[in-house]
Each structure stands twice: as structure tokens, then as C-alpha cells.
Write a structure and sequence with these properties.
Pfam families: GAF, PEP-utilisers_N, PEP-utilizers, PEP-utilizers_C. It comes from Chromohalobacter beijerinckii. There is one protein chain. This protein is an alpha/beta fold. The strands form three sheets. An eight-stranded mixed β-sheet has the order 7-14-13-9-10-11-12-8, with helices on both faces. Strands 15-16-17-18-19-20-21-22 form an eight-stranded parallel barrel, surrounded by four helices. Strands 3-2-1-6-5-4 form a six-stranded antiparallel β-sheet. Strand 5 and strand 6 form a beta hairpin. Helix 1 runs antiparallel to helix 2, helix 5 crosses helix 9 and helix 8 runs antiparallel to helix 9. It is globular.
């Protein structure tokens, strides 16, 4: 059954349209389950009912005509309850409703399962049989699996515009991912194609069909030449049978084979890369399904040839800066820092990626540049999105594809309001972050990019609360030398002197890999990361510590921060290395003072080791992002559970309040450098808890400063007491929004749904 399931999924995913996908599914499911009927009903939001969209076994004239509201009939009951219904004698069920158009009076047994995508009911998949019997557990499980697969097909169809009538509840094709950088954008999607990836070629309509055909023939000719050269080079070293394989490649590329079929697709209205990808994938899918082992192995050959031809086609179609739309939302399988540079900054309004995480280099860059970004959008039908109109909501991690005029107008209004607010807040950015009752709350900035991007902030902040030293490591092709690191750190320290600069030692692992030092683990966030890596490689850490200390000479504004601490032994070992680095430099004639050393509180276990930590370090810095994900057991970069990740969860707020209280008792300064500090409402809560400084990305400074300047310290303490008494995250968020509204500060928060 598993093999049958795979083949059906493969056929459905390869369908050129929604109608073809539905027809394939009902035909193949009916055959696989040996039933008399298989039907698909889709939910039509405008009519608020389920509509019969395809069937094999019922009367075909009923397709598009039979409909029922949720809760009416057996199909409506499945849609309303969003759970399977398995009946031996369907006509005897109290919810049974007879539709004369279908001719279903002949069928007794009924099995219906809901089609659900991202918690939205999209339709119902049904099988029926004349015989009076209950479908067994295996059959029910099979149909549930098929419905789950069909949900993905429907989501893709909605995004590509091929689903015209039944749609999601809000009338839009909406996809969710991980909110990596706040803000909103309306623009045109530009798909960034990975080199020679047949599955990521967007659909485009050619402006010159003959030119596309010429490009195709030139690309095929180049590949034929490459194969001929390779065969000639290897002819004396491989067997006659293997030489024959090269001849087979040449035949596949011949005008009467691959080339002719691709040319036909181009003349039907596709550009050369899209036509090639479609033809190759169709041949591969066919060969992978046949029973002959030899032919199945040829599927890999066809795929390889397709990639080779595609590589040559892509060489001739690069984008230039002037060809990007004025409002470009860049979208790709995995975006890199280099891909951002391909789009002129004044045209780039948003970023979307299927892969990636909120702490990747791209995410850090996007937040620093103020570009709305959503990552981890696993369900996107990437090849079909090029040129589509879209709305990107970086606050909630959403992408609306081909939105209607009403939604687009709504978001454009919100974007205009955000821009106007930023201009208003800009006028008070050089004023102190002081409450209405005279309490000064130091605001610091998170950095890691080029100095010139943040040096202008010096007059607006109390220092750098987090300098991410891993960013220069990510941008290199090897570990940077001590001299290279010293220059980078010196620039940062000089730019902000005499203000303190908190430099975190190399924090890789988890979702932050170095290209020259990959870490491959089954569970990276609970694995080898942060201080665990650098203590296992003291040669790397010692170079970094020496560079930091050398860079601080004469400035004395360096603070060293140790990430991912989970035990006292780690702190003791790291402190010994710091002492050793200092001794070595002093012996070399370098005069320097010992910097302050702190630890990141992000592993929940450290909350129970504060006394021992306080005896060893000078300050605590709370990484609220990791602390939240570890306390809640939620991978914040997994879009399927991203909605569960919220630093305003009562358990997280309780832990933070406890930490602030303990820090005061221990007389150890504590600050927060996670995303919660950059949330205006979150910042007020943290101030009420008693944290001594808040550090955030530069774009968040203005809103947080505005919030602090318009409340009193007493107000924030009252807010904290009220909030800590609430039992759920939703209640906390609602209360914060209510209070911010009463203080006329609601405009500082992301727009409400």
C-alpha cells in the first residue's frame, strides 16, 4: 500500500492543473481501494458551502452543481467536525441527505475524511461502496493520508491562481512561516532560481518564442559537445558498455527526442527553462514508476542531462538591476547574503525563503536593514510564483499571494501608517529614554554588521549590548586570523568608545553553521553549539580572546559574553582561558586591563545556578529567544510550531521576573538582548521587572524609546503584576494591547488582526 501511495502522490504532484490533480486522485484512489465511488468536495468561502468538484462513480453532471453547507449531510458533517466519518449503512444515519443528481442511492457504505491545510478545512474526500460494510482501519488511514497530500496540492493551486472557485476562508492564498524580521510589504514576487534545479524553475511566458528555441538548441549543442569531450577523454579507461552509455546520452539529446518535445512546449507558450523542466520531470516520473530495473536507472540519466541543459540556459538569462520590479519581494529556496546584494536596495521591500531560520545571517541582515522577512515557508509552490502580486507580513510570518484589492488596500494603509510613525518618532531619537517619573532606562543596540551601519547610533544608545562575532566568521571562507579579528573588533570598540561594547564569543551550532566548519546533528539546538564548540576547540577561542583583548587596549570598553552556558565547569574553563590570553599578551608587552565577563542566561538550568554564577562573573545577559524556546520546548525556526513560540508565555515571563529579582539580590547587573527587548510592550514589562538595560536591533529603538518616555516606572510595575497573574499567552497579549491602548501607545505595536 505504501508503494501505491507514493505513486499516487507522485502523479498528483506532477499534474499541470488542479482539475488534472483531482481527476488523477479520484481515479487512482478508487482503483487502489477497490471502491465504487471516490469524490472530492471543496469548500467555497463565498457561498459558505462544500461543492462537489470531481467524482468517479457518481453522475458527472452533478460536478459543480451539488453543494451543501457545513453541518448538512454526511459530507457537511465531516467538514464541520473536521474528523473522519466511517459508516456501514450511510442512508440510516440521521445526517444523511439524498441528492438525486448524484445517483448515490445505490451506495450503502461511506467513508469521508476532511482535507485540512494549516488548520483550515479546505474540503472533504469521500469513498463509497454499494455493499454494506465498514471500511477497515487500514483503508481509513490510507484515505486520511491521501487527504493530507491533497491539502498541499490545493494550497499550491490557490497560490498559483489555478483554483478559481473554492478557496480558503478569507478568500486569499495565505502561507505561514517564521517571522524573521518585522514590517509589511506589498510588491511583486521574484523567484531566485538555484543553479540547475529542475524543481525550482518558475513559469514564464516568453516574449520571443523563436529566441527561446534558439537558446534551447544552443544549450543542447553545448551539452552534446561536453559529453563528447568527456567520452573521448575516458574512452581508453572505461569498458565498451560504459562508452555505449555516452552514445545513449547523445541519442537522448537528439532533435527527435528530448529537444523536439521541449521545443513543442515552447511553441505552446512556455519559456525554454520551464518547458525543459516539465518535459524532463515527466520522463523521470514515468521511468521511476516502471517495473524494469534498467529503465528505472535511466531516470537518473535523464535528470542529469536536464540539469546540464538547464545550467546552460540559465547562463544566458541573468537578471540585471534595472530588470527588477520597483517593489521586489525576493523569494527562493534558501536566500543568502549574496542574493540580497543582487537586488538594488531601493527596490527590495521583502524577503521570503523556504529554508532558513530567524538567526541566520540573512535574518540578521534583514533586521538590521529593516526589510520585512519570513523564512521557513515550507509549503510554497516556488516554481509557480514568479511575477505574482503578494503581501508580506513580517510581523506574523504570513504571505498572501494574489490578494484581492480590499486586502491590498488594507495593507498599503498600514504600511503608510508605519512609515509616518517612523518619521514622527525619528524626531525624538536623540532624547533620553527616561520615563515620565524620571527613571532612566539604558537602551543598547545589537550589532554584528559593518561598523558604518551602526556608528551613527552612538548618540542614541548607551552602548552595544550584543556584538555578534559570528557574523564576520560567516562571511569568511576560513577562520579569520587574530590580526583580522583584532581590526574588526577595534573598529567596533573605537566607534562606540567610551560606551561599553559587549562582545559575545563565537556562537555557532544550532542553526548557525560556518561553510568551512559544518556541524551536522539530528537535534542541533540541543547539541554542539555556543561555548560547547569553542571549549572543545580552544585554539579557535584563544585566537578570538586574544584579538578582543588586543583590540581593547587604551579603550577599556570591552565586555566579554559567554553564550550557551549550561554548567559552572564551562564558566570556570572559559575564565581560565581569558586569564591565559591576558597573561600571554602582557608577557608580549601589551598593557591592558581585564574586561568584565558575563554569561548568557538562555539555558533554563542556569536559572537554578545563579548564586554560583554570580560568584564568578560580572553581569548576566538574557537571551530571551533561546530561553523561550528551551522553556517551551518549541523550535522557533520550525514553521509548524512557530505559533507556539512566544516570549509572552506566562512561564517565560515568570522565569524572567524571577531572574531579575535574583539578580538584584545577588547585586549582579542583568540585561536582556533578545527580541522581547525590542517589543515596546515587552520592554515595559522587562523594565517593570527591574532589568538594568535592554538591547535590541537598531530599527526597534525608536518605538521602544517612545513607549518608555510615555509611561512611569510605577505604571510598568503595575502592568507586570497584572500580567503575571494571567494564565495564557493569549490573555497576556490581549492585556498588553489593552493597556497600551489606554496609554495611547497601541500605534507602537504591530497592527492587530
Amino acid at each position: 500500500m505504501l508503494d501505491v501511495l507514493r505513486r499516487i502522490i507522485q502523479e498528483v504532484n506532477g499534474a499541470r492543473s488542479l482539475e488534472a490533480a483531482l481527476a488523477t486522485m479520484v481515479r487512482r484512489i478508487r482503483k487502489a481501494m477497490r471502491t465504487d465511488v471516490c469524490s472530492v468536495y471543496l469548500f467555497d468561502a463565498e457561498r459558505d458551502c462544500l461543492v462537489l468538484m470531481d467524482t468517479l462513480g457518481l453522475r458527472t453532471q452533478a460536478v459543480g452543481q451539488v453543494s451543501m453547507p457545513l453541518g448538512e449531510g454526511l459530507v457537511g458533517l465531516v467538514g464541520q467536525r473536521e474528523e473522519p466519518l466511517n459508516l456501514e449503512d450511510a442512508p440510516s444515519h440521521p445526517y444523511f441527505r439524498y441528492f438525486a443528481e448524484t445517483g448515490e442511492e445505490r451506495f450503502s457504505s461511506f467513508l469521508g475524511v476532511p482535507i485540512i491545510h494549516q488548520r483550515r478545512m479546505l474540503g472533504v474526500l469521500v469513498v463509497q461502496q454499494q455493499a454494506m460494510r465498514r471500511f477497515d482501519e487500514g483503508e481509513e488511514a490510507f484515505l486520511i493520508t491521501m487527504a493530507a497530500q491533497l491539502a498541499g496540492v490545493l494550497a499550491h493551486a490557490m497560490a498559483t491562481g489555478t483554483l478559481t472557485r473554492p478557496t480558503q476562508a478569507d478568500g486569499q492564498a495565505m502561507f505561514s512561516g517564521v517571522a524573521a524580521s518585522p514590517g509589511m510589504a506589498v510588491g511583486e514576487l521574484v523567484v531566485l532560481m538555484p543553479p540547475a534545479d529542475l524543481n525550482s524553475v518558475p513559469d514564464l511566458i516568453p516574449t520571443d518564442i523563436e529566441a527561446e528555441i534558439t537558446r534551447l538548441h544552443e544549450a543542447i549543442a553545448n551539452v552534446r559537445q561536453e559529453i563528447g569531450v568527456a567520452a573521448a577523454r575516458l574512452v581508453k579507461r572505461i569498458s565498451a558498455q560504459e562508452v555505449a552509455l555516452f552514445d545513449a546520452y547523445q541519442q537522448m539529446l537528439g532533435d527527435a527526442a528530448l529537444g523536439q518535445e521541449v521545443e513543442k512546449r515552447i511553441r505552446e507558450g512556455q519559456w525554454a527553462p520551464g518547458a525543459l523542466a516539465d518535459v524532463v520531470k515527466r520522463h523521470v516520473q514515468y521511468l521511476e514508476r516502471v517495473d524494469d530495473n534498467y529503465l528505472r536507472e535511466r531516470a537518473a540519466d535523464i535528470r542529469d542531462l536536464g540539469r546540464r541543459v538547464l545550467a546552460h540556459l540559465q547562463e544566458d538569462s541573468p537578471r540585471t538591476p534595472d530588470t527588477f520590479p520597483e517593489q521586489t519581494i525576493l523569494i527562493g529556496d534558501e536566500l543568502s547574503a549574496a542574493s540580497l546584494g543582487e537586488v538594488p536596495r531601493d527596490k527590495l521591500v521583502g524577503l521570503v525563503s523556504i529554508r532558513g531560520s530567524s538567526t541566520s545571517h540573512v535574518a540578521i541582515l534583514a533586521r538590521a536593514m529593516g526589510i520585512p522577512t519570513v523564512l521557513g515557508m515550507v509549503d510554497l509552490p516556488l516554481p509557480r510564483l514568479n511575477g505574482a502580486r503578494a503581501i508580506l507580513d513580517g510581523h506574523r510570518g504570513r504571505l498572501f499571494v494574489r490578494p484581492d484589492a480590499e486586502r491590498e488596500h488594507h495593507y498599503e494603509t498600514l504600511i503608510a501608517e508605519e512609515k509616518a510613525l517612523s518619521e514622527v518618532l525619528e524626531h525624538e531619537q536623540d532624547r533620553p529614554s527616561e520615563t515620565s517619573d524620571g527613571y532612566y532606562m539604558p537602551l543598547m543596540v545589537n550589532t554584528g554588521l559593518a561598523v558604518e551601519a551602526v556608528a551613527s547610533l552612538k548618540s542614541r544608545v548607551s552602548g552595544v549590548g550584543l556584538y555578534r562575532t559570528e557574523v564576520p566568521f560567516m562571511m569568511n571562507e576560513r577562520f579569520p586570523s587574530e590580526q583580522e579579528q583584532t581590526r574588526l573588533y577595534r573598529d567596533q570598540l573605537e566607534s562606540f568608545a567610551p560606551l561599553p561594547v559587549v562582545m559575545r564569543t563565537l556562537d555557532i551550532g544550532g542553526d548557525k553553521d560556518l561553510p568551512y566548519f559544518p556541524i551536522d546533528e539530528a537535534n542541533p539546538f540541543l547539541g554542539w553549539r555556543g561555548i560547547r564548540v569553542t571549549l572543545d576547540h580552544p585554539e579557535v577561542l584563544m585566537v578570538q580572546l586574544r584579538a578582543m583583548l588586543r583590540a581593547s587596549v587604551g579603550l577599556d570598553n570591552l565586555c566579554i559574553l559567554l553564550p550557551m552556558i549550561s554548567s559552572i565547569e564551562e564558566v570556570d574553563t572559559a575564565l581560565k582561558l581569558i586569564d591565559r590570553a591576558q597573561r600571554e599578551l602582557i608577557e608580549e608587552g601589551v598593557k591592558l586591563a581585564r574586561p568584565q565577563v558575563g554569561v548568557m542566561i538562555e539555558v533554563p538550568g542556569t536559572l537554578y545556578q545563579l548564586d554560583a554564577l554570580a560568584a564568578r562573573v560580572d553581569f548576566f545577559s538574557v537571551g530571551s529567544n533561546d530561553l523561550t524556546q528551551y522553556l517551551l520546548a518549541v523550535d522557533r525556526n520550525n514553521p509548524r510550531v512557530a505559533s507556539l513560540y512566544d516570549a509572552c508565555h506566562p512561564a517565560v515571563l515568570g522565569a524572567l521576573s524571577h531572574l531579575a529579582s535574583e539578580s538584584r539580590r545577588l547585586q549582579v547587573p542583568a540585561s536582556v538582548c533578545g527580541e522581547l527587548a525590542g517589543d515596546p510592550a515587552g520592554a515595559l514589562l522587562l523594565m517593570g521587572m527591574g532589568f538594568e538595560a535592554l538591547s535590541m536591533n537598531a530599527p526597534s529603538l525608536s518605538r521602544v524609546r517612545a513607549a518608555i518616555r510615555r509611561v512611569s516606572l510605577a505604571d510598568t510595575r503595575t502592568l507586570l503584576d497584572e500580567t503575571l497573574a494571567l494564565p495564557t499567552t493569549a490573555a497576556v497579549r490581549a492585556h498588553l494591547r489593552q493597556r497600551m491602548g489606554e496609554w495611547k501607545l497601541a500605534h507602537l505595536l504591530p497592527p492587530d488582526d
